[in-house]
Amino acid sequence: MEFFLIISTVFFFLDPGAMSYMGRMQAPTAAYVSIGIAAGVYIAMYVLRAIGLLKMAKNAGKPNLAWCAFVPVATSYLVGELAGDMRFGKSVIKKCGIYLAAAEFLLTVSLALQYIPTLYGYIVDKIYLVPSESGIIYTVGHEITWVADVANIGYTLANIFQWIYVIVAVFVYIAFFKRYVPGGYFMLGLCNVLMVWLPALVLVPQIAIFAVRNREAIDFDAYMRARMEEMQRRRQPYGGMQGGTPGAQPQPPRSPDDPFGDFPDPRGGGDPFAGSGTQQNGDGKNDGGDQG
User: Fold this and answer.
1) Which of 35, 27, 34, 36 lies closest to 126 in space, CA to CA?
2) Same-domain check for residues 230 and 185
């Protein structure tokens, strides 16, 4: 699938028909150059993804699925297995990789029907750009009119199956990256889906898979609970960020020490001023005591 998506991007900048029409390059030459560029990018992507998924499969205890890392379409099945079960409310969907692999297979076949005949037409130099009343249009030599028919069928099918792939892939890849890149799972999962329309993003998720290949899969729900608990600890008034012991429970305020506790009262009372000459009468006023 990715190879044909890359071809579509290369055609945007190096369309063989346009190159031939402008006299910059012969259509067959431009077609071979486009294939070479697409193949180079695809090989780089393939190697990064294969190495990453191979290591992840072994770390996850799935060595029997390691071969899937090297087989197109089967890689989607492996991604689904590494992502785990999908939960939608109380429902649990198992083996999501099967659905993702099936969607990718259908999209790959439709893209192949669209681009392989087109590349053939350019290589045999039978696809032309010709001016018309409505502008410049593509036309196909009468010897290979089937090329246009098959390419149109592929184009129609691709527009249908790409939506099926996107709907399945957005859930599976987000679940996959949740387990390995919990801090950036949404953007990476989105890049893996948006590459259907923006093939320039095709390397981003593959580089991410290669970069995190040595990480152990985590429980995302447990990860989020731990983060929430850490945030709550930091908000406690006597712990975390305010200088106390992290995680310590707040203590009630303590009464101040008695400043006269070290001086015993010879009369046995608790009032250190009991022997002074100033006393209070019943109405709260001071008596003079011994005033001479």
Assistant:
1) 27
2) no
- For residue 176, CA distances in Å to 62, 68, 80, 122, 220 come to 15, 16, 7, 40, 10
pLDDT for 255: 59
Q: What is the pLDDT of residue 65?
A: 92
Last residue of a domain, one of 215, 231, 266: 215
- Residue whose structure tokens are 């390397």: 203
pLDDT of residue 248: 53
Cα distances from 254 to residues 70, 100, 193, 242, in angstroms, run 67, 63, 60, 19
Q: Mean pLDDT for each 10-residue chunk of the chain (292 residues)?
A: 90 87 88 94 93 93 92 93 81 86 95 93 81 69 84 93 90 87 77 75 84 83 75 68 51 57 54 52 51 44
Angle between helices 96-123 and 27-59 (to 10 degrees): 160
The residue out of 215, 240, 268 marking a domain boundary is 215
Q: Where are the alpha helices (DSSP H) in the chain?
A: 2-13, 16-21, 27-59, 74-83, 96-123, 145-180, 185-194, 203-211, 220-235
Q: Two tokens at 88?
A: 């939608």
Predicted pLDDT at 261: 55
d(CA 289, CA 21): 122
**Do residues 106 and 237 share a domain?**
no
Task: Determine, yes or no, domain membership for 182.
Answer: yes
Find out whether 97 and 80 touch, Cβ atoms under 8 Å: yes
Query: CB-based contacts of 113: which residues, under 8 Å, 6+ apart?
Result: 150, 151, 153, 154, 157
For the chain, the first-to-last Cα distance in angstroms comes to: 112
C-alpha count within 13 angstroms, C-beta hemisphere, residue 40:
6
What pLDDT is stored for residue 103 in this prediction?
94
